[in-house]
Every structure is written in structure tokens, then in C-alpha cells.
Amino acid sequence: MAYPPLETRPCGGRYTDIVEAIGNTPLVELRRLSPKPGVRIWAKLESRNPTGSVKDRVAKALIEDAEEKGLIRPGQTILEPTSGNTGIALGMICSRKGYKLKVVMPDNVTPERTQLLKMYGAEIVYSPGDQGSNGAVAMALDMAAADPSYYMPYQYGNEANPRAHYEGTAREILLELEGRVDAFVAGLGTGGTLMGHARRFKEELGDRVKIVAAEPMQGEPVQGLRSLDDGFIPPIIDLSLLDRKIFVTNRDAILWTRRLLDEEGLFAGVSSGAIARVAVRIANEMDEGNVVFIVCDDGWKYLSSGIYTLPVDEIEDLESTLWW
Ligand SMILES: Cc1ncc(COP(=O)(O)O)c(C=O)c1O
Q1: At what angle do helices 85-97 and 55-68 cross, to 10 degrees?
Q2: CA 1 to centroid of ligand 1, rounded, Å
Q3: Is the pTM of this model over 0.90?
Q4: Which residue has the CA at smallest separation from atom 6 of ligand 1?
Q5: What is the largest CA-CA distance in the chain?
Q6: For residue 311, pLDDT beyond 90
Q7: H/E segment holding residue 80
Q8: pLDDT at 322 over 50
Q9: Are the beta carbons of 258 and 307 closer than 8 angstroms?
Q10: Of the candidates 164, 156, 162, 149, which has an alpha carbon nearest to the alpha carbon of residue 64?
């Protein structure tokens, strides 16, 4: 039998290694959440990366950047503060490439994250949960200062982080939508996703594309996201590249995580619910065009929270700070 030539896109590509299989994620239209026929909402499913999150791209870029600059050698220990996803992605990549990994993580993240990190052979150092990711950053910086044998990629201050999106995610979105992106919404964690997309989109499309950040209300933590009002602005963030910041409560993030699941069949993590909520609000303000938002990870790591099966009216009644 004669086979037609294999096109990369329809089959998802053929790779020699799992690290190479990072990226080229699907872009899916969410028609039920769209408020008007002329406004189309697109979800970029970063949850479809090998370890299940947007951070696969970043971890690969951080390690390959250090390799290219001769900053690390096999067997060395990589140290990184992370609320989970970057650590899990680094765990997979370090185990493939022969590095040891130590992560500093708040002690109140979901147990699934701990299991995933251990599964990839990472060592975990816990920081106080009530200090959030800022506490993990401070502890990791102290550890790196005290022991120069560690290499700390430091995603909060490393340009390889936004570059992974500039060269990867943003480029893929432009290709799929043939340059017709009117608004882009992502969560604000390290700022890497927002900065990489903002640079690429503004460069190619000018000011007509609006870059919007979903930020949690201060004191209403959403795993993966940060409030800039907590006092730490990651060095890679250039606030002038953001057109808007919209605040989301923890309860809204959970409600919209459920709307993604119940109305669109999309099983996403809680930060994606917060981002979807902002994307729909932006779509409401437009008459026509494409709104793209990032689904940072899927829901597996949050199952133990019970939010995917809780009746929606009980979520509406929740004290939002009950959750993370
Ligand atoms: C689940 C989740 N959502 C959103 C983000 C935010 O992405 P970024 O760090 O690119 O701002 C992260 C980052 O760690 C995350 O883990």
C-alpha cells in the first residue's frame, strides 16, 4: 500500500524524544461561551504538553539556554522555586537530560503536585505555605547564595522564559489564526506567558491587539497566579506591555473552571478558569474578532480539592478564601 506523505500537523508530529514533543498544542474554539456570533473565543490547550502544562515549554527553554551558554553540566543540581508546574516540567526534562533537581515549593500546594515531582525524581524543599510563592522564591535565592554548586534558572528573571512563548506559543497562535488576533488573555504568574505573547503580537500586529492580564485579587490566591499588590514584581515583567489587568476572585476562578467543564467539556486547572472569566468579559466588550486565552494546565492536579464534582450552587455560596 502506498502511503501519502506524512504531514506533521494532522498527526501531531513524529519526534525522537519526549522533550522534542513539547509544543504544537491545539487551539480550540469555545462556542458556547461566546457572547456574540461575531466574537470567537479560542483556548490554546497548553495542558496538552507532555507533563500537562504550559511550563514544559519554559523548562525546556531554561535548560537548553543554560546548556548553550555552558552554565550547566550533566550531574549538576538544578534549583528552582516553583508552585508546581515548572518543577514538574523541569523534573521530566532533567531526568531525560541527566541533571538532578531540587525544587522549593509552598507546603500547602495540592498533594498531586508533590507526587508528580517525586515521580520524576525531584527533591522537594518546602517553604511556609502562608508566604505563598514569594516565600519559595526568597528561600531558593538564599539557598543558591549559600551554595554556588547549584544552578538556578530563576524563571522570574530569565529571558528564556518569555522567549519560549515568543518563539513557540505566540507563533503557533498567529499561524493558526493567520494573524487575526484581536485580544490575548493570560494569567499573571512569572509574567513569561504575557510578556512573550505581548512582544510577538505587538511586533507583528501593532497596537490593535490588546494584551490582558488576569490577576487574582490580593489575598485570594489562585494556584499559579500572583497578585502584584503582594509586593514582588518579577524582573521579566514590563508592565507597559499590558493593555489591561482584570482582577478575579478565587470563587469566580472556580466557577469558571466549572463552566469550562460543564459547558465546553474542557477539564482545566483553576487558573484557566480565572483566565477564561476575563476572556469572556473582554469578548463581551467587542463587536467582532478573535479572543485567545491560555489553558495553562488540566484538572488532574486539582482533583483532590473536590471542585469538579461540587454542585455549582454550593460553589456560589463558598467563602472564596476557603480554597487555596
Ligand atoms: C497553573 C498555572 N497557571 C498560570 C501560570 C502563569 O504563567 P506565567 O508564569 O507564564 O505568568 C502558571 C505559572 O506557574 C501556572 O502554573
Answers
A1: 50
A2: 46
A3: yes
A4: 189
A5: 64
A6: no
A7: strand 77-81
A8: no
A9: yes
A10: 164
